[in-house]
Design goal:
mainly alpha; Chloroperoxidase; single chain; 8 helices; heme; about 40% helix
Amino acid sequence: MRVSILPAFAAISPALAGFDTWSAAGPYEVRGPCPMLNTLTNHGFLPHDGKDITREQTQNALFEALNINKTLASFLFDFALTTNPKKNATTFSLNDLANHNILEHDASLSRTDAFFGNVLQFNQTIFDETKSYWTNEETLDIKDAARARLGRIKASQATNPEYSMSELGDSFTYGESAAYVVVLGDKISGTIKRSWVEWFFEHEQLPQHLGWTRPNVSFEEGDLERYMKEIQDFTKTIEEPGSTPGTQKQRRTPRRPSHFGF
């Protein structure tokens, strides 16, 4: 029998998985800098210890929890695999994702830069800054995501003496920003309830008790490409004339979509 997390969190058996089950990492379990993968692990869609995650597990988890096309989910796995330092690795663990400037990058929406501390842990101060760029109290859209992305990049540049952003990391920032609106939210309207996003980031839990449900329509590669491009285009309109862009690579067309971390 599944244990309800509502109205309070309750520990569950790692063998259970589902929208109505949730438990945080135990003392010998790991989590990473990616809130979405952490969330799916807390719910048991991925192995609850966060270790040695396979391609099939990644594909099944993203499909079962979020209705993400399994081919697209496989791209995520391919990139996550590159963070495992073991030669010829066929799995990854969530804490592998913290290896700096592979997939993990400066100017996160919810983590501090590596220069300042632990990138594995949620940082409320950073997330409060992210929220300050959102203009609507009820609903978020792609423009809100673009503002927050650019704002965090500029803040990181201004405060981190070792700020850096690889081309791959820069591309990921577009995918991450699109994902919390149109993967977790509604890909048709390009919107999501702000309360859902806040709960998701702050608790690493799917916000079903706030009315969220698994999307009925499959999320495809073309959907992510479309919204990544919208974020890029809107970013160009809000950068101040004559200012230095977040990175020079920001003006390039984003690479093939590959990441759903936030």
